[in-house]
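Handout, page 2. Input:
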Amino acid sequence: MQHQHITFNVQDVGQIWPRIEKEFRSRLPLRNLIWKGGITQTPRFVEQLNVKVTVDGENDGTSDSDSSNKEIMSATMPSLSTNPLLNIYLLETLDTDALDMYKSVIRPRVKNWVSKVTQRKGEEWAIIYLPNAAEVQRMATTTKFLNMRASVFDKLKSDFQTKKDSDHVIMLRPDMIESWNTVFLTLRDRTVQALEERVGNMADEIRRLDSNRMMPGWNYCKFFIVKESLVNMYRLMGLHSEALAQYDELEAVYFELLDSKRLSWFSKFGGTHPGDDFADILNDKKRPYHKQMAESSITMFDFRIYLFGRQCQLLIDMGDYTELISRAQRFVSSFSKSMRESGTGLSLSFVASWTYSICQNIVEICEGIQITQAPVDRSQAHNASTVATTRMLAASKAEFLTNARQQLDILGTLYDRLPPKYLRRSNTCIQLPSPLLRSPSESNKPDSENEKDKQAGDVPKRYGPYADDIDSITNPVLTEALASDERFDQIYVRTCEQATQYYLECGRRRFAQVLRGDIAQLFISREKWQDAARVLAPLIPSTDAKSLGLMDVHLIERMAICEQQLGNTERCLEYVMCLVSHSQYLDRASCNMYTDMLVDLASHLRSPVQVGSGASSLFTVSDINAIDRDDTLCVAATLVSVVPKLIKGLKIEALLIAGSGIEGNQIEVLFDVRDVALEPGANTVHLTTDSVSCPGRFVVRAVTIHMANLAFPIIVSNPNTRKFVRLNEHPTAPVISLRPATVVDSTKPSGVRLSIQAQAVSVDSGMSIRLFDDNGHLLLNSHCAQESDGAASVKDGGMLVVSEAIKANAAVELYIRLNKKYTTMRVTVYAEFQVKGQPRMFLDSYVADFSPRLAISGYVETLAEKHIVVLRAQSCSIDPIRLDALWVAQIPNISDNNDKGLWEQMAVKRGYLQIGDCTTVVREYSAAECDDTIHIQVEASFVTVLDIVCKMVCDKLDQLALKHGVSQHKRYIERLATAHIRATIDEAATAREKKLVCEPLVPLWAATSAYGTAELQKSMRQLFHELSEALVDGKLTDGGSSSNNSNNGSDAERLGHMLRVELALGVTRKYAAASMSLGDERSCHVYEPAPLAVSISLKVAAGPDAEDRRHTTDNKLLVTLVPREPEKWLIAGPVSREITLDKESGRAIMKYTLVPLEVGYLRLPEVICHEEIIGKEDRPSDSHETNNKNDKETADSLGSKYQRLKTVLVDTQTTACVLASSTVATMYTVPISAAESPVGTAVASRTTASMTFI
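Output:
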């Protein structure tokens, strides 16, 4: 640009300048000026003003073009030519008689110089006087009052400085800093005054020209030159905003004249010179714009580019990049539109070339902009502004490059460099209308002639209809691009990649994705599959995404084509499945094509492939339920297919799992169905299995759809949401059940009845059975005995093997002794067998009560010649017990064949015994016939109320299940109803009235049909209504009393139990009789204290030495309370106490406090008594030996002071066991909703012992 500095012209007549030049130039440029001028007369701060110094009018270094500009300025406005802004006259006197020389020589010269300078407008002047040594000494030694003789400096000020407010004459002493400062302050003031005067003159001239705009002869070009001279002055002072305002006014005047069509100064539109399509907007030397402007020969094309370039330069100098980008976008859009208008004579290819060039030029300008980073002490707001500007520039560069790429689309279409496939499939390619595709030569011909020319083949094949117009493109990049397809593709891809990079920098990833997709489409059109796949790979979203957009689907389409052409079947399959699952973005033909492609690719897979969860969205499971069938296990799944076409030949599998398996493993059940056809939308499919019979609640883990070797897994349940299905036994598979043995021998391992009931199918070659407890331990081992009619044996590993085949509808019953004591436990039955050569499995888990319901104990009271055996039968069951018969026999009198004739039946109390109740029988034995220990065997026959109730429930269910079509649910309903009755039955009222008294069974229908269909829920509700009414109205069947020899087949006999106990009762002459009383209740509450009263008395058998044995001690005993189950009881107070029996009653009573720690059936502590020894030699010979570990420890701690005394628990208020519960004496409760408790687990709580049956 011109006039980047102002000029100081120095008049040096005495060679003074070389001596002061260095110091003078070191103080340039001028800084911190306050300028008042321009139109508004507003004070402005000029930070810096560049100065060029010329000596004696020497050339200032301007070029020829600048000289011509000066001439132009002088011709248009002679008073405002670019002369020096400040003229300086250097003066020095060396003679001592300087005043005489001043008058004769100096004064005329200076006067002549000042006269010339003051005649030029807009220039200031200053005289710098350098005093000689004599003058300096005189000024230093003489005061002003005594200095009557004036100096040369005083004469200069008097002759040439007429104004008091301005200094034109200055003294400079080069050796003094203060003198230099004074000189430059004066020069700065003179400079500001010259600027104000010059700008004022320019403003006056501009106002004059503007006021004459409507007058004839007014010239816009002259007006532009004058106004631009003011712009240059503003730029010189760094006032860029004022300079930009002047250019904006010029542009506004131009458009005003353009609208009124009064632009006669512009001869033509322009753009026809070589290189016009290659823009460089900041280069004002590209053409002689000022000369053309002065001659009024500039074209509209050159003028618009020059004016826009000057505006851009000012905006860059101001740092207003936002405005720069905004104006550039408007200019490119509007001017390219103007060039396409008729009458301009510019072809479409020229416009595209120019637009491409200027967009690239603007991008280069933006890349050259350096955004200063904020210093550390700047605010965060400044940092945010810097980041925002950087992102704005990146977005703008991306948009301009996108526009440049669109111009390549136009040129590629015009010159046949872009394949037609790309033009149809590109996302952003510009589709040109047919009239624009005609060449300039064709535009003037009728359509019929153009058609004839095309048929004749006159149009060159490579350059299309614009083959003759390619010479108008002079941009070397475009010329090279249009020469070959390969080079065109390189430039096209490079432009797209640059735009993509800037889009990513500004965070507009979606736009970057579009451009990359176009690059890939170009490679696909060129059949460069590998390059296309490389570009598309980072763009493809995860196919597991639940929702994709239209653009994502288009990208996946292209990737699928590439993978198919490259032979990557599995990858192509993944993309095709994603396309099919988003068929809403495809037309019907594409949907059918991709569906057929999916089936074809699946059939060509060499090995099974399981797709990801995203591809599984082709199919979804809306619901799945168990279906009752008479021949197999079946579940009905509702599958929703989004595939827009019918698919045949599918295999569908459903995996169900349960958490309680064998040895901690999960149970898996697989349902399947083959050769299924799925239509678009919802489909109901029935899946079956014959491999397992596993009743219980299962979680539907997944449904898998197989299409040839392609598997679509559909996850139905996850940790947050689970789908449950309850399965029953397989309707045709054998059923294996465990029940307590009819005869229980407490001296041997527990025995159970194992029943195998075959149904509609036969079992090949027997089966293998394993039994597990609730801890996963085997209940059988090789030492366990078994009795059966068929061949069965227990192998190593606890497996019961039935070797013989089982025919259809046949039953096998085995009597097995387990390797555990009697208890209530969860038993899991696991069996493996074969049906028609196919392996099958049976698995069932439920709670079985093997604990003894009756406890038999006894003791011996010794008289002189006989022993009285007292036998006590106590109820240990929460269910009322009816004791039907009791047989007693002395063991030596029992033969090996267990002849019942040697047994003696004892008379027992009739009626029902509640928990803790007991009945006592007495039998006498001759003392002469007995040793110190009497061995007897006792057998008791009894039946519980719950046995009778359960039998009644089973009989009713047989009828109702068949009536309502829920026979497969019978066993589950039976277990659930039994548990409910056990939890809510009123035992006393039921036994008294011989009628079931419990809570209604109706609410149980919700638990039995919680995961079933609506039809099953309706059937279950009706069934439980009828079952509840039948049980409440019906009478309990009482079989009456039955002896052990009877075979009358009554309910009492069929439901009865036999308990066999062997007792070894010691005959003791002296013993302690203890009785315990636990308050007035039959049960206690867990974690709540319960008072326990223990009564102790001393018993001495009759005989001649009875009195001596009675006085062995002084009625002093040591009583110890030993818990049988320490982890279940907390005993408050001392465990061992010394007591003295009351002399009158012979009894002592002790108070204890017990706190139960667990819920359930708990045994009371054991009472152990020791007597004090009077003398060691007087120790009785019949003292009881210490066999118990606790007794030995007690005896050791007591030393020789006490010895163990036999302690007999006589008739007490309570039994030796109590039930610790919350409010009711119950062990079993069943939740109404099966979802409230895990399946197959026993839950103990503070309030109830809760147990759920499957």
